[in-house]
Amino acid sequence: MILKNLSKLQIRAEILSILQSFHLTSSEQEFFNDAKDRLLQIEDYEGVLDVLLKEFSKADEEKAQIIAILFVHIGADKSQKVKDALWNNIKFPGISDELKDYSAMTLRVLGEAINPDELITYFKNPQELINKETQKLLDVAAFNPEAQLDFLDFLFTLGKTEQFQLINSLKDDYNTQELENILIPIVESRYSLDLLPDLIELAGNIKSYGVVPVLKNIIEYSDQNDFVKLAEKSLKMLKIAGIDIDNYQDKIIPPNICDISKPYKFLTCAIDGTGTQGIIASRISDEGKIYMFSSVINDVDGIEDCFGFYNISVNDFEKIADRFQQHSDSFKISPQYCKYCLDNAEKINKINNSELCYEYVVWKKLLFDIESEKIDENFLKKEVFQKENIYNYNEFKCWFINENEYPNIAEILQNISKITENTNILEYLKKEEKLFIENFMTDEICEKYKNRLINQAYLFWTNKEVQKSDDAMFLADNIQKNNIFFKDLFKRSIFESLLREQAKHDELKEIQNITPQKNVVALNFSKNLNELQNTDFSEIIEFLNDYWFRNEY
């Protein structure tokens, strides 16, 4: 219902009623949705904005935050009026620095470009405000991973000199846990090698058990001798300060998030042929809020990606889980197995001395109180014969390699494109298959595929798919270079590469068939293509599909 002909006094009464209901609503999202609906029912839109702006100019911190969000929700149509008023707040001497700061944040959300150097000239005591906001952010970061990441994101946007200045100011003004929340993700992730020497040295001066494993990892895995020496020195400093560097595990303070929540749901997708696997881990609070993160791991590269959400509803989490399950074969797993997979992946990053995304280092605190549990292979082994070709299962449809893993594939496709007789193609591919088995399928590669099969067998077993589990374990136990599995791997890899090249060829053909006046686009496009994209592989694909996958090879 549209509320017409309301006076400013009546509009103010309605807005105050909305603001007072903030603490009576079960969730912030519900409050802001309801507030937006109620405000948009008032016909005098200009009057609503005027009252909100006036209330904002004299609000306390909490009320100002609420009104700032309301501006974003309802201010789109009149954003310039709101922006002008917020700029007036910033420039007016009688407004507090806190409100000027909220005005600036709201302007940024509304798309306004703000020059920091100009903005700071309007503040009475900018350094005091910066210190206050920094303390507030660090306080929240102690239990909220998203706030911790906000601070790290901000830190990494600064220049090298400003990063050093900020770190040096923190070590003088803030306590151990606050410093750990900044120091550990940077050191563990190796995201900023420029900061590492200072941070490793700082770790020896904050008297914390939490930094002990971080320093020990540098000593064990780092390939840079300077970092190792600094870590050894910092450990000695901690020992002198009374830290037991040999018996530290039980003395590390658990993250706050583990005190207020318990493990909830853990999911993973089927392992693909490159050893890549997606994982979702979550916890639930007593109030029914979900803390979760999702990682992509790989048995060659380790942790590849990570993102998370703090304090979302069960319904929102289930939507994310549903999307995760729709895109691949997924399995419910135990928290212990989840921890085992992520620990293994993280170790690969350390062994490779590769960067570990700091988002993962922050979010992995959700697993702090969970023990890692390795798969008991003996429990999975069965006295069975392999009844099915493993490729008959959907979970193995994507088990093939590409040109990055086996560069010879590109040359093989080039040679196939020059052979005219199908029987000659088959003879050629049989020779290449033999070379693939002899040269590419080393003992190390076989062991890697064995581990992938064991992990996939375990996922089948947890999902009560006994036959699939037995077949995968049988293959894992009998993995040899001359196994038919690797011959199938070669065929499918060649076949998938042909399909990809055919798709590129079809795309080129489509561009070349467009209107004559645009053929110059097709000409320029084709100059950047390799000769394979000018080859039509459709007949070869059909022949190999019949011969390899519909008949016995």
Helical amount: 55-70%
Distance between the termini: 73 Å
Q: Which radius of gyration do the C-alpha atoms yield?
A: 30 Å
Separate helix tally = 26
Decide which structural class fits the backbone.
alpha+beta
Average per-residue pLDDT, rounded, comes to: 82
Q: Percent of residues in beta strands?
A: 5-15%
Major sheet size, sense and barrel closure: 5 strands, antiparallel
The main sheet orders its strands as: 4-3-2-1-5
Number of β-strand runs = 5
Low-confidence region ranges: 525-529
Shape: globular
Task: Provide an overview of this structure.
With 553 residues, the chain is α+β, with helices and mostly antiparallel strands. Helices cover 60% and strands 8% of the residues. It has 26 helices and 5 strands. A 5-stranded antiparallel beta sheet has the order 4-3-2-1-5. The longest helix has 29 residues, at 484-512.
List keywords for this structure.
single chain; 553 residues; alpha+beta; 5-stranded antiparallel sheet; 26 helices; 5 strands; 60% helix; 8% strand; globular
